[in-house]
Amino acid sequence: MSHCHDEHCDHDHDDLPESGEQFLLFSKIDIDNVRCLNESEPDSGKLVIRPWDERLEDSKFVESDADEQLIFYIPFTGSVKLRSICLRTDRSDAAPSRMKVFINRDDVDFDAADSYTPTQEFELVEGSNEVVEYGTKITKFSSVRSITLFFPENFGDDTSIVRFIGFKGEWTEVKRDPIITVYEANANPADHKIPGAEDKMDHSVQ
């Protein structure tokens, strides 16, 4: 069961999708291109982005390395109207206490995360072992191609732990019109005659 953290559900609860399969976006994530910065184990950040029915699995988690900060870059395979971010962290003080969210940027590292203005910022729930759902300001998240989650601090531990990240919203395929270009390998001068030019030959040079 997930709980909407009502401090940040600044839209009507009727507008927030239930956990029905039609709103879950795991299958629309470009998982191969997910990146996690400051993870203690390589590729462990990808392990927390998984199907909804695996959200309570404790064997898969990511722990930060050098300090308590973590950054996740998560691209989608199309355009997403993002309604909520679902997090399961940790009961201990290793749970992140804040989250800054950036959309449609692939250049957010730790220096940039401190200087860029986030699309939205959240104060996170402390001491929960359940999935907590944080509602977005939908008008700012209506056309999301990628999302970056920055966890700058936790509730007092040396490192941070995240156990599950999920998303709810509506996905739209992005269609690209093919660009058709015709290249002429060897131009034939006969194909480029100017009408009447043959009747205007220059006889000035004898």
- The portion of residues forming beta strands comes to 25-35%
Kindly give the count of domains.
1
What is the global morphology?
Answer: globular
End-to-end Cα distance: 96 Å
Describe what you observe in this structure:
This protein is mainly beta and 206 residues long. It has one domain (2-192): PITH domain (Jelly Rolls), CATH 2.60.120.470. Helix content is 5%, strand content 30%. The protein is built from two helices and ten strands, in the order E-E-H-E-E-E-H-E-E-E-E-E. The chain has helices spanning 44-47, 110-115; strands at residues 2-4, 35-37, 62-63, 70-88, 98-103, 120-123, 131-135, 144-151, 161-162, 164-172. Strands 1, 2, 4, 5, 6, 7, 8 and 10 form an eight-stranded mixed sheet that branches. A two-stranded antiparallel sheet has the order 3-9. The longest helix has 6 residues, at 110-115. 33% of the residues are buried. InterPro entries: Galactose-bd-like_sf, PITH1-like, PITH_dom, PITH_dom_sf. It comes from Mucor velutinosus.
Keywords for this structure?
206 residues; mainly beta; Jelly Rolls; eight-stranded mixed β-sheet; two-stranded antiparallel sheet; globular; PITH1-like; PITH domain-containing protein; PITH_dom_sf; PITH_dom
